[in-house]
Amino acid sequence: MGRHPAVQIDLGTGDGRAVLAAATAAPERLVIGVDANAAGMAEASRKAARGKLANTLFVVAAAERLPRELDGVADLVTVYFPWGSLLRGIVTADPVIVAGLARVMKPGASLSILLSVTEHDRSSGLPPIDERDLRGLAEPFATQGLTITGVTSATAADIVATGSSWGKRLGAGAQRSAWRITGYRSAAPGDPEPFAGRRSVRA
User: Fold this and answer.
1) Quick one: DSSP state of residue 202?
2) How far is CA 117 from CA 49, 130, 161, 203, in A?
3) What are the pLDDT digits (tens) for 17-72?
């Protein structure tokens, strides 16, 4: 990882297309896709090899059990339209999930989450969410070292820019509401101040 000036982790990457899009857009950045489903990332991994995208890496791991090798490596963590336990963990501010997000981030690293939960998603076990619900995450996220800086509506153009095929399939930002949460990793005691001497990396 040392030969790359910046590292992005795309957590819950699914089919990995967002990783390919990010790696192509920023060839100097190492983009790591993490998902519990190895088969889902297989085609993206093959495409990366064929396209000689040496700045990609795919890691098979659950969000609840992220490898220690990823601790403190990310300048940017993206989570695009999570599902299952990852979605529930973010929306309910599950300490295990949120602490995992914080653990892989450098002090001052950026966080960008896109999600959508509507009436049509009752099978997820979650009620529809809105801006007020997501703003309520600020306090529990802060206890794990993550500062939320914004909660905004996501547009269809925002979704396209991520390269997330799942977001497009959902019709997020067009047929259904979607939200972007932005934030950063706060400095822990003894850590350097966030953004000191460097610039943040944005999605």
Assistant:
1) -
2) 34, 8, 20, 22
3) 999 999 999 999 999 999 999 999 999 999 999 999 999 999 999 999 999 999 99
Token pair of 155 as six digits: 């547009």
Contacts of 170 (CB under 8 A, 6+ apart): 81, 116, 176, 178
Nearest to 111 by CA among 69, 80, 82: 80
Cβ atoms of 86 and 77 closer than 8 Å: no
Q: Are 28 and 179 in contact (CB under 8 A)?
A: no
Amino acid present at 29: R
pLDDT digits (tens, 9 = 90+) for 121-174: 666 778 888 899 999 999 999 999 999 999 999 888 888 888 777 666 666 655
Q: Are strands 29-35 and 6-11 parallel, antiparallel or unpaired?
A: parallel
The 10 Å Cβ neighbour count of residue 135 is 13
Instruction: Answer left, alpha or beta for residue 38, where phi above 0 means left and psi between -120 and 50 means alpha.
Output: alpha
Residue type, 150: G
Evaluated on CA atoms 71, 77, 80, 86, the torsion sign reads positive
- Under a CB-based contact definition with an 8 Å cutoff, are residues 63 and 29 in contact? no
* Structural contact between residues 97 and 72, judged by C-beta atoms closer than 8 angstroms: no
- Which one-letter DSSP state was computed for residue 130? -
The reported pTM is: 0.87
Cβ-based neighbour number of residue 34 at 10 Å: 25
